[in-house]
């Protein structure tokens, strides 16, 4: 197990520099005008950002109301016996609920957990793993589908939520396996 961790540590040192150097180098090899393409993409990204602001405001307002109203605490208290029976600590339920809704809200959850339990807590490790392995499903659907005027999301929502749920369960399982 220790050899595997050392290998992961070694590989992780080189991943970001390889990406930063690799993509432009690949573009140059393929004779793509890298800088011009980058600037065009940045312009398009700015236009998309302006288009999604109303959706972003709506979802952030909704999350704020959900937390401030006490509904999140009520939901957690209701789920506590169920998730406890299957081995999921109730302390990570807020992350499982908020993460599919918003990235910044789930980052705030992790920060609250760090302040409450300490950065080396198993609950914080589970929440951080959930943060990295799940998606902001409702946010993505509301903002990105809204930005390109897609009204019928078909299977995107159920598949996204199933993936989030599986990642939630695996985060608990893997952290318990690695850190006891």
Number of strands: 0
Q: Give the amount of beta strand, in percent.
A: under 5%
Largest sheet features: none
Low-confidence stretches: none
Shape assignment: globular
Strand and helix order: HHHHHHHH
What is the share of helical residues?
A: over 70%
Query: What is the C-alpha radius of gyration, as a whole number of Å?
Result: 20 Å
Please state the average pLDDT score.
88
Could you give the topology of this structure?
Blueprint: H1 2-29, H2 34-68, H3 71-85, H4 93-98, H5 103-117, H6 122-133, H7 137-147, H8 156-179
Helix pairs in contact: 2-7, 5-6, 6-8
Explain how this protein is built:
- The chain has 180 residues and is mainly alpha-helical.
- It has 2 domains: 32 residues; 139 residues, no CATH class.
- Helices cover 81% and strands 0% of the residues.
- It is built from 8 helices and no strands.
- The protein starts with a helix and ends with a helix.
Concise summary:
Helix 2 packs across helix 7, helix 5 packs antiparallel against helix 6 (122-133) and helix 6 (122-133) runs antiparallel to helix 8.
List keywords for this structure.
2 domains, single chain, mainly alpha
């Amino acid at each position: 197990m220790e050899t595997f961790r050392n290998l992961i540590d070694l590989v992780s040192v080189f991943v970001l520099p390889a990406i930063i150097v690799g993509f432009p180098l690949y573009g140059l090899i393929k004779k793509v005008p890298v800088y011009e393409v980058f600037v065009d993409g940045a312009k398009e990204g700015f236009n998309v950002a302006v288009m999604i602001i109303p959706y972003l405001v709506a979802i952030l307002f909704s999350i704020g109301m959900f937390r401030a109203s006490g509904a999140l605490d009520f939901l957690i208290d209701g789920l506590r016996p169920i998730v406890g029976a299957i081995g999921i600590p109730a302390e990570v339920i807020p992350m499982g609920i908020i993460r599919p809704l918003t990235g910044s809200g789930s980052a705030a959850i992790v920060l609250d957990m760090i302040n409450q339990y300490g950065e080396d807590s198993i609950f914080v490790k589970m929440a951080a793993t959930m943060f990295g392995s799940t998606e902001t499903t409702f946010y993505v659907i509301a903002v990105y589908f809204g930005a390109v005027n897609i009204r019928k999301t078909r299977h995107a929502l159920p598949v996204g939520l199933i993936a989030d749920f599986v990642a939630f369960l695996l985060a608990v399982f893997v952290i318990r396996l690695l850190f006891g």
